[in-house]
Structure formats: structure tokens, C-alpha cells
Design a protein that fits this description.
264 residues, alpha+beta, 25% helix
């Protein structure tokens, strides 16, 4: 039963009419019959038909490429189309035939200022090349300062207090941070205003004092909030750690719970 079904499927396989000279497939016209061609990979002969493109070029194609539409022309439709001489791109005017340099098409152009340039063809068509680059008016120092001021937010991205703000957020919110288990992992959070804005953090905490000061939480079981944070020196930080121990008259008194390690 199974063999008869397989035989039925084989018998109903679609067949195509044989290609004849004169048949037209898009821009290709069949000129002559099949020509034997040996595949280098398998060593088996396959059919090849000689076809002529509308542009006049003659080439060989197999029947499957012609019937499926994979081969529509000889490739002339995909050839590079050079911009005509006299075409204007901004301040550049095409003044010569394009040249292929390192497999890239370069187009001779003349700028309005008289300078000659050889830009890439694609840079002309996408608008990235519109002048020689020399005739642009130099930007004044005042204009540069105005642009810098417009793009600048708080101007403290390279300061230590900005790095402190980033480190504070990372150890409380990023599970990949090595210190996360001692901070975010045990419920230490950050004030929502500080989390969203460095400016808010800076307005509440101000500049870091000189002399090795770093941010410190007064109550180490609470998060980073304005009322619970201060700038503290190393000795204050050390006394506020969970590992800090007081020895008084032979008795050991553990300090209140705090985060281990110095904060930045």
C-alpha cells in the first residue's frame, strides 16, 4: 500500500515543456539548444542554454534558472549607473567620468570654490558629500562654546562625585555587580529622585569634602536617602561597618549591622 502511494506521488510530479530556441524569459531570449556542461563539484553533465540579453550580451543559463525567474537578464540591470556630467550635488558638480579604485566608484567633481575632489559615488547620492570641505566657513570660538553649552547637561560626568552616584546605583540595582548581595540583595535601595537624576543627588549631597571622604549611610539597614546619607571620613566609615568590633575591659561588643567594605 505504501509503495503504491509513493509510486502515485512520483507519477504526479509536475513536468515542464521543453525549452525551445526563441523562447523569451524576461530580458533573455533562447538562441540555441542545450549545451553539455560538466559540474566541477559533482562531475555530472547538466543542460545549459545559450541565451541573448536585450543589451546584446550572450551567455549560458540552465533551464531551472530561466523557468524560476532567477535569471532575468545578464546583470546589466544591476550595473553601476554613473551620474551624468554636470549633475550638481550641493556645491559639487560632476566634471568627469567615474573611476573604479579598489572596487569603489569615485566621481571627479568640481566645487564652487574651484577645488577639485574625487568623492565616493555613494557619498554623493546619500548626501554625505556636498562640498570640498575647504570652503566651509570656520566656526568661531563663541559658536563652539554655545554648541558645547547647549549639549552639556551638568558638566560633572568626569568627576569623582558622579562616579560615586553611579557606583551607588549599580550596587543597589544591578545583580551582576559584585557588591549587589551586600546592598540590593539585602534590601538596600536608592531614593527614587537620586535614582533618576544625578542633579537631584548633587543638590542634596553637594560636593565631596577633601580628605578621603566618601558617602556613608547613618543607619546601615536603610537605603540611600537624603536623611540617611552623609559624607564621612575613613575612621567614621570603619566604625560604621558590620565587621566593626569594640573591645571594652575584656568584653567584646559588636557594632550595629553595616555594609562591609569602604564605599566610594
Amino acid at each position: 500500500m505504501a509503495e503504491s502511494l509513493v509510486a502515485a506521488v512520483r507519477r504526479t510530479r509536475k513536468s515542464y515543456p521543453r525549452i525551445q530556441p526563441g523562447d523569451v524569459f524576461n530580458k533573455l531570449t533562447v538562441v540555441s539548444g542545450d549545451t553539455p556542461y560538466i559540474q566541477p563539484s559533482s562531475g555530472k553533465p547538466v543542460d545549459r542554454w545559450i541565451v541573448r540579453c536585450e543589451c546584446g550580451r550572450t551567455l549560458q543559463r540552465n533551464p531551472a534558472q530561466l523557468r524560476s525567474g532567477q535569471s532575468k537578464d545578464c546583470g546589466c540591470g544591476r550595473k553601476y549607473k554613473a551620474p551624468a556630467i554636470g549633475t550638481v550635488f550641493g556645491s559639487l558638480t560632476v566634471c568627469g567620468e567615474p573611476r573604479s579604485i579598489n572596487k569603489q566608484w569615485m566621481v571627479p567633481c568640481l566645487c564652487k570654490c574651484g577645488e577639485r575632489r574625487l568623492p565616493f559615488s555613494f557619498s554623493l547620492t546619500d548626501g554625505s558629500s556636498t562640498s570640498c570641505g575647504k570652503c566651509r566657513a570656520p566656526m568661531s570660538d563663541e559658536a563652539k562654546d554655545a554648541i558645547g553649552s547647549a549639549n552639556r547637561t551638568h558638566g560633572k560626568s568626569a568627576t569623582s562625585i558622579y562616579r560615586t552616584w553611579q557606583a551607588m546605583k549599580n550596587r543597589c540595582t544591578d545583580p551582576r555587580n559584585q557588591a549587589f548581595p551586600m546592598y540590593g540583595g539585602r534590601g538596600i535601595d536608592v531614593d527614587p529622585r537620586w535614582l533618576a537624576s544625578f542633579e537631584a543627588f548633587y543638590a542634596d549631597m553637594g560636593d565631596r569634602p577633601d580628605g578621603g571622604y566618601s558617602i556613608d549611610r547613618i543607619d546601615n539597614d536603610k537605603g540611600y536617602y537624603p536623611e540617611n546619607c552623609r559624607w564621612a571620613d575613613d575612621s567614621t566609615q570603619n566604625r560604621n561597618r558590620r565587621s566593626f568590633t569594640i573591645v571594652r575591659r575584656g568584653k567584646q561588643i559588636n557594632a550595629p549591622s553595616a555594609s562591609v567594605g569602604k564605599l566610594t
